[in-house]
Specification:
Shape: rod-shaped
Low-confidence stretches: 313-318, 406-411, 449-459
Radius of gyration: 56 Å
Order of helices and strands: HHEEHEEHHHHEHEEHHEEH
Largest sheet: 5 strands, mixed
Number of helices: 11
Distance between the termini: 50 Å
Strand order of the largest sheet: 5-6-7-9-8
Mean pLDDT: 79
Number of strands: 9
Structural class: alpha+beta
Strand content: 5-15%
């Protein structure tokens, strides 16, 4: 898992602070450049004035070698400290005879060394020869640099306080502006749980209103889809119940036919057989008994066919689906002798589920019924293959095929598609190389329990 990401409010606040900090730094850089230039101009101007004044004093001293040196020292001591300069007098013996006093403005305070080195102007000291005395004029920008340092400290402190104030105000404003996102997130969380009962209001912010509108439309659509799915599930449950009821009715009818009508026909055949044995010398009675015996044989075949349609072999739990398919093909061929039926089945590796076997037989019945009614075919091939995880049924005829007509309208394939869909299987319709129509169904043997149709479970 990745580390927890910063919130949008934090990101925006940091971005705003970074932008303001860059602006402050850029302003500080511009201010330092302008301050350095101003200090350089101030020192140069002050040094130029001091230089002119010292030139006058030196020229007077050189014209009067006797009283000039004393008068020069008197003037220098009377002036004291020159603005932005330091004055030093060195005697003929190399000893310092005078040094201008330290500044009284912000006495004892100095800017940091790195800041002084950064702003100090590059002005060389000036030397004056006054006979027996040597005067050195050194530029001194320490007071101007100290003023600049104080201004910078005050400005940076104010900027920092302003940044903090802006950060707090921006965070409060962002929290207020982004407060609707918490409700939007709650609505999305409920939607993720399948509950779309929340509708978002307008927030008088274009972006948030657009987001809220999109969510509301999505929630309405999903609500409608969920309602439709619920109705569809109810309809499918009803259809499965009807199918299960019909299957049960088929079994009851098949049982009644077998137990009642089948036994009655068997009894009639037994009686007619007994009559045949006892009245061979009575041609009229003998002929009638033969007719009755033949008629009951046809009735037995008819009842057997009806039973096969009502409850095919294989739907009785035996699981011999290959035998049931072969028996049905043989029965169908007897009713349609003009159509040749080739039935190829492979033996199953294990017992086939009753519901799956019934679905396969219903698909086979529907396919062969369509062949007899619509295909105009002379031959049909039936293949049943058992795979490790599925059962494959293929019915291929040499008839007219789809002939450009809608498959659903011509072959009534909706029921077949529904049966295959209930098993999460595949159903394909295509035309083989020789023409006609091929119906191929692929049904999984073990679909998930919750996907297995209820009606097939009980069929």
């Amino acid at each position: 898992m990745h580390a927890r990401s910063a919130t949008l409010g934090t990101r925006v606040s940091l971005a705003l602070l970074a932008t303001l900090a860059l602006i402050v730094l850029a302003g500080a850089g511009w201010w330092v450049r302008e301050t350095r230039r101003a200090i350089h101009e101030e020192v140069q101007a002050a040094s130029h004035v001091a230089q002119q004044w010292i030139d006058v004093l030196v020229s007077e001293t050189l014209r009067d070698p006797v009283d000039g040196p004393a008068r020069l020292m008197a003037h220098l001591r009377a002036v004291g400290r020159l603005r932005a300069n330091q004055l030093e007098v060195i005697a003929a013996d190399g000893m310092r005879s005078y040094l201008s006093p330290e500044p009284t403005y912000k006495a004892g305070r100095f800017a940091p060394g790195w800041f002084s080195d950064w702003l100090a102007p590059a002005v060389a000291p000036r030397h004056f020869d006054a006979g027996a005395q040597h005067i050195v004029l050194r530029p001194d920008a320490s007071r101007a640099i100290l003023d600049a340092w104080d201004d910078l400290s005050t400005g940076l402190g104010s900027a920092l306080a302003l940044l903090l104030l802006v950060a707090v105000a921006a965070r409060l404003a962002l929290d207020r502006a982004l407060a609707p996102l918490a409700r939007i997130d709650a609505a999305l969380a409920r939607g993720a749980d399948g509950r779309f009962d929340i509708r978002l209001p307008g927030y008088r912010v274009v972006e948030l209103d657009r987001l809220a509108g999109s969510y509301n439309r999505l929630a309405d659509t999903l609500d409608q889809a969920r309602a439709q799915n619920l109705r569809l599930e109810q309809d499918q449950a009803f259809a499965r119940a009807v199918q299960a009821r019909l299957a049960e009715e088929r079994r009851v009818i098949a049982r009644e036919l077998h137990d009642e009508l089948g036994q009655a026909i068997t009894a009639v055949r037994a009686i007619s057989g007994a009559i045949l044995q006892r009245c061979e010398d009575q041609p009229q009675i003998y002929g009638s008994a033969q007719a009755i015996l033949a008629m009951t044989g046809q009735m037995q075949d008819g009842v057997r066919a009806i039973l096969q349609r009502l409850r095919p072999a294989g739907a009785n739990g035996s699981g011999q689906l290959d035998r049931a398919v072969a028996d049905y093909c043989r029965l169908w061929s007897g009713h349609h002798p003009h159509i040749r039926v080739d039935c190829v089945t492979s033996p199953p590796e294990a017992t086939t589920d009753e519901a799956l076997g019934l679905t396969v037989l219903r698909l086979l019945q529907e396919s062969l019924t369509n062949v007899a009614r619509h295909a105009g075919a002379s031959r049909v091939e039936v293949r049943l293959e058992f795979k490790p995880d599925a059962v494959a049924l293929e019915v291929c005829d040499n008839g007219r095929g789809l002939a450009g007509e809608p498959a659903a309208g011509r072959f009534g394939l909706a029921g077949m598609k529904e049966r295959v869909a209930e098993w999460r299987g595949e159903l394909r319709f295509d035309t083989p190389p020789g023409g006609g129509l091929r119906v191929a169904a692929h049904l999984p043997k073990n679909p998930p329990c919750e996907e297995l149709p209820d009606g097939l479970r009980t069929a």
